[in-house]
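Handoff note, outgoing to incoming analyst
You'll be picking up this chain. Sequence as last confirmed:
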Amino acid sequence: MKTYLAKKETVQPKWHLIDAEGKVLGRLAVKAANILRGRHKPTYTPHVDTGDFVVVINASKVVLTGKKEEHTEYMTFSGYVGGEKYRKLTDVRRQKPEFIVMQAVKGMLPRNRLAAKMLTKLRVFPGATHDHAAQNPVVLK
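Most recent structure output, in case you need it:
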């Protein structure tokens, strides 16, 4: 029996829509990461981008469990001495709520160049409207 390996040219990506309102961030990120990688398809091949596009709406209404809302911080580093900056999750949610979902999904993808390509197929919107109605995304529960 031969093992099937997908090729980049044969992959036909689909579009999926996830409504983040009331969903737990980690569980939402796992679902989105698996779709981006193509783990939901029988033709999944680890070294080929077989994943689909994911549109996440209502990112500002995502839920975190426990005390993560108060304790979670995001760190950035400018590259200069003393260039570390920490931002609380509550501040990030107020200013740029789509960043929270993007970082959670990014953390669940592998650390390689292929994951960077997969992350470009993730579209996150803070509200209920999105720009991808023409692609007819399939609504996921």
